[in-house]
Design a protein that fits this description.
alpha/beta, 20% strand, Rossmann fold, six-stranded mixed beta sheet, 13 helices, four-stranded antiparallel beta sheet
């Protein structure tokens, strides 16, 4: 089994607001260099602060929850720490905490880290609750997913969910449990870290396949009104969050919905049987009147994706449902098909059927998601 070597940490601001801003001679177990620590903190000199904190054992409370838990986690026999990532809030204190942690761990020569980064998560802040709920937590999932993929996948990653907003910690736990990644946490009153074991969670990715084009719109920030949502798949509702805009309920992708999409992409970077086609055949078109640019677009998609064998145009059924470029996997006549749509500047649309080298359900879902990311406007 691969050795886990990457730790993704959610980060709060308790080190500054709860520890260092209150540090004084009266602080219980204050370190001997507390004056130098406090001076560097007050001056916002993060390099000097890192040097002073290095003189204190990383297990001491004054070092903060992030340093404490990392020190304990790295002693676990299942973690060979090489990559350390901090996900910080979109606030001045969040950025400053990330900057301090980076400078501190850069000077921890005993760790021999290969990669050390902090990343500000857009809209992860407490001044605009709606932005936090709808965008901040989703961006947290997205950033975590990017790092999981970058460092080799779920088998190489662990999550430290000790720091940050309560909702931020909760989402980090769900990410781990949904993707089979160990998550640990330490409350300030705990003597040691506790772990949240992965749960046997599975997602129904038929929902993604059938609604891939709509989910792509949601992920890009589009909101649908209650009236519009009534026309969509009822199963989508569990992946959405409701907000009120100008007195009307609208729906956007929820953090759980983002975990759903991110989890699919991490678990299925590419279906194993979706190989380059050996018998590619140019797309064929019925003798119909088509939208401007339709044939060129179909041929472009066919040409640029080696695993597409061919494509062919379809009759003009479902014309009203065409809302631009999109890809999904509906079931038609008892058969799941990868269907693309195209609409020109005159709102004239057409559909086409894409044939790929592996037409298993998971491959079709992957292809629809991938094509939406690549071509949907």
């Amino acid at each position: 089994m691969p050795q886990r070597n990457t730790l993704i940490c959610t980060v709060g601001t308790s080190l500054f607001e709860g520890n260092l801003s209150r540090l004084s001679a009266n602080t219980p177990d204050a370190p001997s260099n507390w004056r130098n620590i406090r001076k560097a903190y007050d001056e916002q000199n993060w390099t000097n602060l890192a040097k002073e904190i290095l003189k204190v054992s990383p297990t001491e409370r004054v070092c903060g929850a992030e340093i404490n838990t990392i020190e304990e986690a790295r002693r676990k026999n299942w973690l060979e720490l090489e990559n350390l990532i901090f996900l910080v809030s979109d606030t001045p204190n969040g950025k400053n905490t990330g900057e301090f942690l980076k400078r501190y761990f850069e000077q921890r020569t005993d760790l021999n880290l290969r990669n050390l980064e902090y990343q500000i998560v857009d809209n992860l802040q407490d001044e605009r609750p709606i932005d936090f709920k709808v965008h901040g937590l989703r961006n947290l999932v997205r950033k975590a997913g990017e790092y999981i993929q970058r460092f080799g996948g779920v088998e190489y990653v662990a999550i430290d969910a000790t720091g940050g907003y309560k909702a931020q910690i909760a989402i980090a736990v769900v990410i781990g449990q949904a993707l089979n990644i160990p998550v640990f946490y330490k409350h300030e009153r705990f003597s040691e870290i506790i772990d949240f074991p992965p749960l046997p969670i599975s997602f129904d990715y038929d929902i993604l396949a059938e609604n891939a084009d709509v989910l792509a719109d949601f992920e890009r920030g589009k909101a649908f009104s209650h009236r519009e949502l009534d026309k969509l798949d009822e199963k989508l509702r569990v992946l959405l969050t409701e907000i009120v805009v100008d007195g009307e309920s609208v729906y956007e992708l929820s953090p759980i919905g983002q975990i759903y999409l991110t989890g699919f992409r991490i678990r299925n970077p590419k279906p194993i049987r979706l190989i380059p086609a050996q018998n590619k055949k140019k797309p064929s078109f019925r003798d119909d009147h088509y939208p401007i640019g339709f044939k060129d677009f179909v041929e472009k998609v066919w040409r640029e994706n080696t695993w597409i064998v061919t494509a062919n145009s379809l009759p003009y059924s479902g014309q009203k449902s065409i809302k631009g470029i999109g890809f999904r996997v509906p079931e038609e006549n008892g058969e799941k098909r990868l269907i693309g749509t195209f609409q020109d500047k005159n709102n004239f649309g057409a559909r086409f059927w894409i044939h790929i080298t592996d037409e298993s359900p998971i491959a079709l879902a992957w292809a629809a998601d991938t094509l939406n990311q690549k071509y949907k406007q």
